[in-house]
């Protein structure tokens, strides 16, 4: 669907990530091609009860009871957060990924955008991943076309890479000299491997804590090379990109560190996340000049040091170039919402492996 005007509008993007910590929301002013401005942001953490309901629904598909409960949490929390931010002309609603099996059953993000549109009285773009998967794509990552716009926004001229260290890691290599993100050779993207999710699971299991704050536990341990080498034998790392992962695809990691003490296990898992990125960088068409890191993992100094030590390029959090690493994914879905509204593609063969350029996402307008 195309709007009459191509002028920039304010979009509010939202993201409920694989870490299940809460929902991010961020305003972005864009015409769907270029970023004009970033605006207000908001965050609503999930309560322990809400997170438990979501956790219990991981891996579930629509029709299962535990999905109904998760959907209710996702919709209620988004409504609360989005209602508190004024000025949006459209909402990009990612929802919560509960299951992702692009070559099998598909991909499933909990949350009904049509219901949200009715309650907000605003158009909502949602279900961003299904069309890509139906056309043979991975359905993820979807932030790459936004990363291209970010590269232009920061004035980059030579190839660079964005790395999101969320529950899962994903990397976008960008050549900002290309005219548009959908141009051949502009982007290459893929999930690098597990990032924080397995460390969080380890912390929960061993210490009853949500995550390894500032890498404090990893800093006390030694990386166990044997476990790291076994991890790197996973076939996923040899697969050519594009490629994507579900949150729990690497649950074997916990088995590899089962015998280790807490600190060595945390250090080894942190090294695994960093090593997965190093493997991923090898797939880039030319080495990136710098690696700009977004997502919660950029706050883990142990993980950042391991990356810097193992890579030939500069490694820096996205804040180094004036971007907001807590909000980049939410901004991405605001940007993508405007692309969907304007009939622009949101993914292509080099970002999700889909057969042709595809504009994923459904536009729901408020009824009545
Ligand atoms: N200070 C910190 N020290 C260490 N780790 C941190 C710190 N802050 C955040 N993290 C890690 O980052 C995670 C949150 O990252 P983020 O918000 O990017 O994930 P997400 O958006 O849920 O994931 P995804 O991008 O996979 O959907 C936390 O669960 C934790 O593991
Ligand atoms: C299926 C799904 O929700 N994938 C997420 C997840 O979290 C990080 C990584 O795995 C990435 O592939 C994706 O999110 C980002 C926002 C993306 O689509 O670009």
TrEMBL record:
Residues binding ATP: 17-24
InterPro entries in the record: Anhydro_N_Ac-Mur_kinase (IPR005338), ATPase_NBD (IPR043129)
Annotated function: Catalyzes the specific phosphorylation of 1,6-anhydro-N-acetylmuramic acid (anhMurNAc) with the simultaneous cleavage of the 1,6-anhydro ring, generating MurNAc-6-P. Is required for the utilization of anhMurNAc either imported from the medium or derived from its own cell wall murein, and thus plays a role in cell wall recycling.
UniProt name for this protein: Anhydro-N-acetylmuramic acid kinase
Single biological process term from Gene Ontology: 1,6-anhydro-N-acetyl-beta-muramic acid catabolic process
NCBIfam families: PRK09585.1-5
Catalytic activity: 1,6-anhydro-N-acetyl-beta-muramate + ATP + H2O = N-acetyl-D-muramate 6-phosphate + ADP + H(+)
